[in-house]
Amino acid sequence: MDAHNISTGFSPDGQRFVSGSHDGIIRVWNATTGETEAGQFIGHTSLVLSVAFSPDGQRIVSGLKDQTIHVWNATTGEAETGPLTGHTGSVESVAFLPDGQRIVSGSRDRTIHVWNATTGETEGGPFTGHMNSVSSVAFLPDGQRIVSGSVDQTIRVWSVTAGETEASPFTGHTNSVSSVAFSPDGQQIISGLRDRTICVWNATTGETEVGPFTRHTDPVSSVAFSPDSQRIVSGLEDQTIRVWNVTAGETEAGRFTGNADWAWSVAFSPDVQHIVSGSYNGTVRVWNVTTGETEASPFTGHTSSIWSVAFSPDGQRIVSGSRDGTIRVWNATTGEAEAGIFTGHMDLVSSVAFSPDGQRIVSGSHDGIIRVWNATTGEKEAGCDIIVSFCV
After folding, report:
1. Nearest to 129 by CA among 153, 156, 103
2. Closest Cα to residue 323, out of 298, 342, 305?
3. Taking a C-beta distance cutoff of 8 angstroms, is the pair 81, 75 a contact?
4. What is the pTM of this model?
5. How far apart are CA 109 and CA 128, in angstroms?
6. H or E segment at 40?
7. In this model, does residue 78 exceed pLDDT 80?
8. Radius of gyration of the chain (CA)
9. For a disulfide at 345, which of 8, 215, 317, 325, Cβ 3.0-4.6 Å?
10. What is the widest separation between alpha-carbon atoms in the chain?
11. Domains of the chain by start residue, with CATH
12. Which of helix, strand or coil describes residue 117?
Protein backbone atom coordinates (compact mmCIF):
# COMPACT_ATOMS: atom_id res chain seq x y z
CA MET A 1 0.00 0.00 0.00
CA ASP A 2 1.00 3.60 -0.52
CA ALA A 3 2.96 4.70 2.53
CA HIS A 4 1.01 7.96 2.58
CA ASN A 5 -2.41 6.38 3.05
CA ILE A 6 -3.95 7.13 6.45
CA SER A 7 -7.50 6.74 7.73
CA THR A 8 -9.39 9.39 9.65
CA GLY A 9 -12.92 9.84 10.88
CA PHE A 10 -14.99 11.88 13.29
CA SER A 11 -16.42 10.38 16.44
CA PRO A 12 -20.23 10.11 16.45
CA ASP A 13 -20.55 13.41 18.37
CA GLY A 14 -18.16 15.26 16.07
CA GLN A 15 -15.90 16.35 18.93
CA ARG A 16 -12.99 14.05 18.15
CA PHE A 17 -11.45 12.23 15.27
CA VAL A 18 -9.20 9.21 15.02
CA SER A 19 -6.24 8.63 12.74
CA GLY A 20 -4.57 5.35 11.95
CA SER A 21 -1.10 5.44 10.47
CA HIS A 22 1.35 3.16 8.75
CA ASP A 23 3.75 3.77 11.62
CA GLY A 24 1.48 1.49 13.66
CA ILE A 25 0.20 4.27 15.91
CA ILE A 26 -3.39 5.38 16.50
CA ARG A 27 -4.16 8.86 17.76
CA VAL A 28 -7.38 10.51 18.94
CA TRP A 29 -7.52 14.26 18.47
CA ASN A 30 -9.63 17.01 19.94
CA ALA A 31 -11.28 18.52 16.89
CA THR A 32 -11.26 22.01 18.43
CA THR A 33 -7.75 22.29 19.85
CA GLY A 34 -5.89 19.82 17.66
CA GLU A 35 -4.35 18.23 20.72
CA THR A 36 -4.23 14.53 21.34
CA GLU A 37 -6.73 13.52 23.98
CA ALA A 38 -5.09 10.33 25.13
CA GLY A 39 -1.58 10.35 23.79
CA GLN A 40 -0.47 7.75 21.28
CA PHE A 41 -2.12 4.35 21.29
CA ILE A 42 1.04 2.27 21.31
CA GLY A 43 1.21 -1.48 21.07
CA HIS A 44 0.91 -2.22 17.39
CA THR A 45 3.93 -3.69 15.67
CA SER A 46 2.54 -3.42 12.15
CA LEU A 47 0.75 -1.14 9.73
CA VAL A 48 -2.75 0.03 10.73
CA LEU A 49 -5.00 -0.71 7.75
CA SER A 50 -8.39 0.20 9.22
CA VAL A 51 -9.83 2.06 12.23
CA ALA A 52 -13.38 2.74 13.40
CA PHE A 53 -15.20 4.20 16.41
CA SER A 54 -17.85 2.24 18.27
CA PRO A 55 -21.38 3.64 17.92
CA ASP A 56 -21.16 5.27 21.37
CA GLY A 57 -17.74 6.76 20.68
CA GLN A 58 -16.17 5.06 23.70
CA ARG A 59 -13.97 2.57 21.88
CA ILE A 60 -11.88 2.25 18.75
CA VAL A 61 -11.16 -0.92 16.80
CA SER A 62 -8.07 -1.31 14.62
CA GLY A 63 -7.16 -3.89 11.99
CA LEU A 64 -3.52 -4.56 11.16
CA LYS A 65 -1.30 -5.97 8.51
CA ASP A 66 0.12 -8.38 11.10
CA GLN A 67 -3.25 -10.24 11.07
CA THR A 68 -4.45 -8.94 14.46
CA ILE A 69 -7.29 -6.75 15.73
CA HIS A 70 -7.18 -4.46 18.78
CA VAL A 71 -9.86 -2.64 20.78
CA TRP A 72 -8.90 0.58 22.57
CA ASN A 73 -10.47 2.88 25.13
CA ALA A 74 -11.01 6.04 23.11
CA THR A 75 -10.57 8.27 26.17
CA THR A 76 -7.53 6.80 27.89
CA GLY A 77 -5.79 5.17 24.93
CA GLU A 78 -5.43 1.95 26.87
CA ALA A 79 -5.92 -1.41 25.21
CA GLU A 80 -9.23 -2.92 26.31
CA THR A 81 -9.18 -6.12 24.31
CA GLY A 82 -6.67 -7.86 22.14
CA PRO A 83 -4.81 -8.70 20.23
CA LEU A 84 -7.65 -10.68 18.65
CA THR A 85 -6.01 -13.47 16.70
CA GLY A 86 -7.36 -15.96 14.23
CA HIS A 87 -6.86 -14.44 10.83
CA THR A 88 -3.95 -15.76 8.76
CA GLY A 89 -3.79 -12.75 6.47
CA SER A 90 -3.77 -8.97 6.90
CA VAL A 91 -6.98 -7.50 8.35
CA GLU A 92 -8.17 -5.10 5.68
CA SER A 93 -11.52 -3.98 7.05
CA VAL A 94 -13.07 -3.70 10.52
CA ALA A 95 -16.35 -2.29 11.82
CA PHE A 96 -18.49 -2.33 14.95
CA LEU A 97 -21.98 -3.74 14.64
CA PRO A 98 -24.79 -1.31 15.58
CA ASP A 99 -25.09 -2.75 19.10
CA GLY A 100 -21.45 -1.88 19.81
CA GLN A 101 -20.93 -5.30 21.35
CA ARG A 102 -19.48 -7.03 18.33
CA ILE A 103 -16.89 -6.42 15.64
CA VAL A 104 -16.75 -7.75 12.10
CA SER A 105 -13.47 -8.15 10.24
CA GLY A 106 -12.50 -9.06 6.69
CA SER A 107 -9.08 -10.38 5.77
CA ARG A 108 -6.75 -11.23 2.96
CA ASP A 109 -7.03 -14.83 4.20
CA ARG A 110 -10.47 -14.91 2.46
CA THR A 111 -12.43 -15.15 5.71
CA ILE A 112 -14.71 -13.01 7.86
CA HIS A 113 -14.87 -13.13 11.65
CA VAL A 114 -17.31 -11.73 14.20
CA TRP A 115 -15.77 -10.97 17.60
CA ASN A 116 -17.07 -10.11 21.04
CA ALA A 117 -15.74 -6.59 21.53
CA THR A 118 -15.33 -7.07 25.29
CA THR A 119 -13.85 -10.53 25.62
CA GLY A 120 -12.15 -10.78 22.24
CA GLU A 121 -13.62 -14.20 21.69
CA THR A 122 -14.89 -15.28 18.32
CA GLU A 123 -18.69 -15.17 18.23
CA GLY A 124 -18.97 -16.12 14.59
CA GLY A 125 -16.71 -17.46 11.91
CA PRO A 126 -14.49 -17.95 10.29
CA PHE A 127 -17.06 -17.36 7.57
CA THR A 128 -15.56 -19.13 4.59
CA GLY A 129 -16.57 -19.22 0.98
CA HIS A 130 -14.77 -16.42 -0.79
CA MET A 131 -12.05 -17.65 -3.13
CA ASN A 132 -9.86 -14.59 -2.79
CA SER A 133 -9.19 -11.64 -0.49
CA VAL A 134 -12.14 -10.03 1.31
CA SER A 135 -11.65 -6.39 0.38
CA SER A 136 -14.69 -4.84 2.03
CA VAL A 137 -17.13 -5.66 4.84
CA ALA A 138 -20.08 -3.78 6.27
CA PHE A 139 -23.17 -4.52 8.32
CA LEU A 140 -26.81 -4.01 7.51
CA PRO A 141 -28.65 -1.46 9.68
CA ASP A 142 -30.39 -4.22 11.61
CA GLY A 143 -27.04 -5.60 12.77
CA GLN A 144 -28.10 -9.13 11.90
CA ARG A 145 -26.35 -9.44 8.58
CA ILE A 146 -22.95 -8.69 7.08
CA VAL A 147 -22.14 -7.98 3.45
CA SER A 148 -18.73 -8.70 1.98
CA GLY A 149 -17.11 -7.91 -1.36
CA SER A 150 -14.16 -9.87 -2.67
CA VAL A 151 -11.47 -9.97 -5.30
CA ASP A 152 -13.16 -13.20 -6.40
CA GLN A 153 -15.80 -10.99 -8.10
CA THR A 154 -18.62 -12.00 -5.78
CA ILE A 155 -20.70 -10.45 -3.01
CA ARG A 156 -21.99 -12.42 -0.07
CA VAL A 157 -24.47 -11.69 2.72
CA TRP A 158 -23.98 -13.56 5.98
CA SER A 159 -26.12 -14.22 9.02
CA VAL A 160 -24.23 -12.91 12.03
CA THR A 161 -25.79 -15.54 14.28
CA ALA A 162 -25.51 -18.60 12.06
CA GLY A 163 -22.31 -17.64 10.27
CA GLU A 164 -23.80 -18.92 7.05
CA THR A 165 -24.58 -17.18 3.81
CA GLU A 166 -28.24 -16.26 3.58
CA ALA A 167 -28.25 -16.67 -0.18
CA SER A 168 -26.00 -17.96 -2.91
CA PRO A 169 -23.08 -15.68 -3.82
CA PHE A 170 -24.11 -12.60 -5.74
CA THR A 171 -22.43 -13.20 -9.09
CA GLY A 172 -22.34 -11.31 -12.34
CA HIS A 173 -19.37 -9.00 -12.07
CA THR A 174 -16.36 -9.64 -14.27
CA ASN A 175 -13.90 -7.81 -12.07
CA SER A 176 -13.01 -7.66 -8.39
CA VAL A 177 -15.53 -6.09 -6.02
CA SER A 178 -13.63 -3.30 -4.34
CA SER A 179 -16.54 -1.77 -2.46
CA VAL A 180 -20.14 -2.44 -1.50
CA ALA A 181 -22.79 -0.16 -0.01
CA PHE A 182 -26.20 -0.60 1.55
CA SER A 183 -29.22 1.44 0.71
CA PRO A 184 -30.24 3.60 3.69
CA ASP A 185 -33.27 1.39 4.29
CA GLY A 186 -31.13 -1.76 4.33
CA GLN A 187 -33.15 -3.51 1.64
CA GLN A 188 -30.63 -3.33 -1.19
CA ILE A 189 -26.93 -3.46 -1.90
CA ILE A 190 -25.17 -1.57 -4.66
CA SER A 191 -21.86 -2.45 -6.29
CA GLY A 192 -19.98 -0.64 -8.99
CA LEU A 193 -16.83 -1.85 -10.70
CA ARG A 194 -14.30 -1.12 -13.38
CA ASP A 195 -16.07 -3.68 -15.55
CA ARG A 196 -18.36 -0.73 -16.41
CA THR A 197 -21.40 -2.09 -14.62
CA ILE A 198 -23.52 -1.26 -11.61
CA CYS A 199 -25.76 -3.81 -9.96
CA VAL A 200 -28.50 -3.43 -7.37
CA TRP A 201 -29.08 -6.55 -5.33
CA ASN A 202 -31.83 -7.69 -3.01
CA ALA A 203 -30.03 -7.83 0.33
CA THR A 204 -32.12 -10.78 1.48
CA THR A 205 -32.31 -13.08 -1.52
CA GLY A 206 -29.13 -12.16 -3.34
CA GLU A 207 -31.01 -11.75 -6.58
CA THR A 208 -30.29 -8.91 -8.93
CA GLU A 209 -33.18 -6.49 -8.61
CA VAL A 210 -31.94 -4.06 -11.20
CA GLY A 211 -29.07 -4.28 -13.61
CA PRO A 212 -26.47 -4.76 -14.46
CA PHE A 213 -26.61 -1.17 -15.68
CA THR A 214 -24.66 -1.61 -18.89
CA ARG A 215 -25.00 1.75 -20.61
CA HIS A 216 -21.69 2.91 -19.27
CA THR A 217 -19.01 3.14 -21.91
CA ASP A 218 -16.19 3.64 -19.43
CA PRO A 219 -15.29 2.32 -16.00
CA VAL A 220 -17.48 3.46 -13.12
CA SER A 221 -15.37 5.70 -10.90
CA SER A 222 -17.94 6.42 -8.17
CA VAL A 223 -21.45 5.43 -7.05
CA ALA A 224 -23.81 6.51 -4.28
CA PHE A 225 -27.39 5.96 -3.12
CA SER A 226 -29.67 8.91 -2.57
CA PRO A 227 -30.81 9.35 1.05
CA ASP A 228 -34.29 8.02 0.19
CA SER A 229 -32.87 4.85 -1.47
CA GLN A 230 -34.79 5.62 -4.67
CA ARG A 231 -31.95 6.74 -6.90
CA ILE A 232 -28.31 6.08 -7.67
CA VAL A 233 -25.75 8.49 -9.05
CA SER A 234 -22.72 7.24 -10.94
CA GLY A 235 -19.65 9.10 -12.11
CA LEU A 236 -17.75 7.75 -15.07
CA GLU A 237 -14.35 8.04 -16.65
CA ASP A 238 -16.06 9.10 -19.90
CA GLN A 239 -16.68 12.51 -18.26
CA THR A 240 -20.41 11.96 -17.71
CA ILE A 241 -22.72 11.55 -14.74
CA ARG A 242 -25.89 9.49 -14.67
CA VAL A 243 -28.80 9.31 -12.27
CA TRP A 244 -30.65 6.02 -12.18
CA ASN A 245 -34.06 5.06 -10.89
CA VAL A 246 -33.38 2.13 -8.61
CA THR A 247 -36.68 0.39 -9.38
CA ALA A 248 -36.77 0.79 -13.14
CA GLY A 249 -33.05 0.75 -13.84
CA GLU A 250 -33.54 3.67 -16.19
CA THR A 251 -31.74 6.95 -16.20
CA GLU A 252 -33.97 9.64 -14.74
CA ALA A 253 -32.24 12.62 -16.26
CA GLY A 254 -30.12 11.21 -19.05
CA ARG A 255 -26.39 11.61 -19.31
CA PHE A 256 -25.18 14.74 -17.55
CA THR A 257 -22.56 16.05 -19.94
CA GLY A 258 -20.38 19.04 -19.62
CA ASN A 259 -17.47 17.83 -17.58
CA ALA A 260 -14.25 18.33 -19.47
CA ASP A 261 -12.72 15.31 -17.78
CA TRP A 262 -13.52 12.35 -15.52
CA ALA A 263 -16.23 12.79 -12.89
CA TRP A 264 -13.79 11.81 -10.17
CA SER A 265 -16.25 12.06 -7.26
CA VAL A 266 -20.02 12.49 -6.94
CA ALA A 267 -22.51 12.96 -4.10
CA PHE A 268 -26.18 13.77 -3.57
CA SER A 269 -27.35 16.81 -1.64
CA PRO A 270 -29.24 16.00 1.58
CA ASP A 271 -32.59 16.82 -0.09
CA VAL A 272 -31.77 14.64 -3.14
CA GLN A 273 -32.48 17.53 -5.50
CA HIS A 274 -28.89 18.15 -6.54
CA ILE A 275 -25.65 16.36 -7.27
CA VAL A 276 -22.15 17.71 -6.86
CA SER A 277 -19.31 16.38 -8.99
CA GLY A 278 -15.60 16.93 -8.77
CA SER A 279 -13.65 16.54 -11.96
CA TYR A 280 -10.18 15.50 -12.96
CA ASN A 281 -9.78 18.88 -14.65
CA GLY A 282 -10.14 20.74 -11.34
CA THR A 283 -13.72 22.01 -11.60
CA VAL A 284 -16.74 21.47 -9.37
CA ARG A 285 -20.28 21.38 -10.76
CA VAL A 286 -23.74 21.25 -9.25
CA TRP A 287 -26.47 19.52 -11.23
CA ASN A 288 -30.24 19.58 -11.01
CA VAL A 289 -31.32 15.95 -10.59
CA THR A 290 -34.60 16.47 -12.44
CA THR A 291 -33.39 18.37 -15.50
CA GLY A 292 -29.82 17.12 -15.69
CA GLU A 293 -28.63 20.67 -16.20
CA THR A 294 -25.96 22.51 -14.28
CA GLU A 295 -27.37 25.14 -11.96
CA ALA A 296 -24.35 27.41 -12.09
CA SER A 297 -21.18 27.83 -14.08
CA PRO A 298 -18.37 25.44 -13.14
CA PHE A 299 -16.80 26.35 -9.81
CA THR A 300 -13.26 27.21 -10.80
CA GLY A 301 -10.20 28.01 -8.76
CA HIS A 302 -8.44 24.73 -8.16
CA THR A 303 -5.43 24.16 -10.36
CA SER A 304 -5.51 20.36 -10.38
CA SER A 305 -7.90 17.41 -10.07
CA ILE A 306 -10.60 17.28 -7.40
CA TRP A 307 -10.16 14.24 -5.18
CA SER A 308 -13.13 14.68 -2.87
CA VAL A 309 -16.38 16.66 -2.68
CA ALA A 310 -19.15 16.77 -0.09
CA PHE A 311 -22.23 18.81 0.75
CA SER A 312 -22.58 20.40 4.17
CA PRO A 313 -25.31 18.83 6.34
CA ASP A 314 -27.71 21.69 5.47
CA GLY A 315 -26.96 21.44 1.73
CA GLN A 316 -25.96 25.11 1.49
CA ARG A 317 -22.23 24.62 1.01
CA ILE A 318 -19.81 22.31 -0.74
CA VAL A 319 -16.27 21.47 0.29
CA SER A 320 -13.66 20.28 -2.19
CA GLY A 321 -10.16 18.89 -1.75
CA SER A 322 -7.69 18.92 -4.60
CA ARG A 323 -4.42 17.59 -5.85
CA ASP A 324 -3.23 21.21 -5.80
CA GLY A 325 -2.98 20.92 -2.00
CA THR A 326 -5.83 23.31 -1.22
CA ILE A 327 -9.34 23.12 0.16
CA ARG A 328 -12.22 25.36 -0.83
CA VAL A 329 -15.73 25.94 0.47
CA TRP A 330 -18.32 27.04 -2.07
CA ASN A 331 -21.81 28.45 -1.94
CA ALA A 332 -23.79 25.58 -3.42
CA THR A 333 -26.17 27.94 -5.23
CA THR A 334 -23.89 30.65 -6.61
CA GLY A 335 -20.60 28.79 -6.86
CA GLU A 336 -18.80 31.60 -5.08
CA ALA A 337 -16.02 30.83 -2.63
CA GLU A 338 -17.25 31.48 0.90
CA ALA A 339 -14.07 31.29 2.92
CA GLY A 340 -11.13 31.85 0.62
CA ILE A 341 -8.48 29.24 -0.02
CA PHE A 342 -7.55 26.87 2.78
CA THR A 343 -3.78 26.53 2.34
CA GLY A 344 -1.10 24.75 4.29
CA HIS A 345 -0.97 21.21 2.98
CA MET A 346 2.17 20.37 1.04
CA ASP A 347 0.68 17.57 -1.04
CA LEU A 348 -2.65 16.51 -2.50
CA VAL A 349 -5.72 16.64 -0.24
CA SER A 350 -7.17 13.16 -0.50
CA SER A 351 -10.17 13.48 1.81
CA VAL A 352 -12.40 16.20 3.24
CA ALA A 353 -15.51 16.06 5.40
CA PHE A 354 -17.82 18.39 7.30
CA SER A 355 -18.38 17.77 10.99
CA PRO A 356 -21.96 16.74 11.85
CA ASP A 357 -22.83 20.32 12.92
CA GLY A 358 -21.39 21.82 9.72
CA GLN A 359 -19.10 24.15 11.63
CA ARG A 360 -15.79 22.45 10.95
CA ILE A 361 -13.96 20.61 8.21
CA VAL A 362 -11.32 17.93 8.64
CA SER A 363 -8.82 17.26 5.89
CA GLY A 364 -6.30 14.50 5.29
CA SER A 365 -3.39 14.89 2.91
CA HIS A 366 -0.60 12.84 1.41
CA ASP A 367 1.79 15.18 3.21
CA GLY A 368 0.96 13.19 6.35
CA ILE A 369 -0.82 16.10 8.05
CA ILE A 370 -4.38 16.29 9.34
CA ARG A 371 -5.98 19.66 9.92
CA VAL A 372 -9.25 20.92 11.34
CA TRP A 373 -10.63 24.13 9.86
CA ASN A 374 -13.35 26.60 10.73
CA ALA A 375 -15.78 26.08 7.85
CA THR A 376 -16.88 29.72 7.88
CA THR A 377 -13.60 31.60 8.21
CA GLY A 378 -11.20 29.12 6.65
CA GLU A 379 -8.89 29.43 9.63
CA LYS A 380 -7.34 26.51 11.40
CA GLU A 381 -9.21 25.74 14.61
CA ALA A 382 -6.65 23.30 15.88
CA GLY A 383 -3.81 24.81 17.80
CA CYS A 384 -1.17 22.95 15.86
CA ASP A 385 -0.65 20.87 12.77
CA ILE A 386 -1.33 17.21 13.39
CA ILE A 387 1.63 15.42 11.91
CA VAL A 388 1.49 11.69 11.39
CA SER A 389 4.80 9.99 10.78
CA PHE A 390 5.08 7.07 8.40
CA CYS A 391 7.19 3.99 7.96
CA VAL A 392 8.44 4.35 4.42
Report:
1. 156
2. 305
3. no
4. 0.55
5. 10
6. strand 36-41
7. yes
8. 20
9. 325
10. 56
11. 1-128 (2.130.10.10)
12. coil
